[in-house]
Design brief:
Layout: H1 6-9, H2 12-29, H3 43-56, H4 62-67, H5 72-75, H6 83-98, H7 107-123
Bound molecules: protoporphyrin IX containing FE.
């Protein structure tokens, strides 16, 4: 193909599955984040984050087929997200990104992914405390 997406460049479905799986195993251990998740089973939430990220980075559009327009800020409204929750979320995500090897994710792609996560987490903050 003449233009590969970021999704393809970083290893496609396998990479996003590993990323979100590590992320949610960190959430499961996190005493700030874990209580925010309404369901006992984190599997469905893991799948939604995976599909969203795949779509965002140019992969399959399954997220919107199933969930419609992302409207992520609105979907996070029920949860109090202040600086503490944001930092906890980013801690889990930084761990997940760090677990992807440098063959799969070179420095430039790693930087782009990390910058995006930091921006996105900040944009989800809906409480000053
Ligand atoms: C859903 C917490 C940031 C993407 C959720 C849910 C919680 C949550 C509790 C509900 C679980 C579920 O049913 O899916 C947080 C917290 C954040 C944060 C505390 C801290 C800043 C983000 C960011 C993204 C994101 C930065 C994207 C890059 C999603 C997606 C869903 C979701 C795609 C499922 C939405 C749906 O289709 O219903 N989040 N989140 N979240 N979150 Fe977050």
């Amino acid at each position: 193909p003449e233009s590969r997406s970021f999704y393809d460049e970083v290893g496609g479905a396998d990479t996003f599955a590993r990323l979100t799986h590590t992320f949610y195993s960190e959430v499961a251990k996190d005493e700030i984040l874990r209580p925010l998740y309404p369901e006992e089973d984190l599997g469905p939430a893991e799948r939604r984050l995976r599909m969203f990220l795949e779509q965002y980075w140019g992969g399959p559009r399954t997220y919107s087929e199933e969930r419609g327009h992302p409207r992520l800020r609105m979907r996070h409204h029920p949860y109090k997200i202040g600086p503490i929750e944001r930092d906890a979320w980013l801690r889990c995500m930084h761990t997940a990104i760090a677990e992807i090897d440098s063959q799969t994710l070179d420095d430039e792609h790693r930087r782009a992914l990390t910058d995006y996560m930091e921006m996105a987490a900040q944009s989800m903050v809906n409480s000053p405390f």
